[in-house]
Amino acid sequence: MTGPETLDVARDAIWTIVIVSAPLLVVGLLVGVAISLVQALTQIQEQTLVFVPKIIAIFVTLVLALPFMADALHAEMMRITSRIIGG
Question: pTM of the full predicted structure?
Answer without folding.
Answer: 0.81
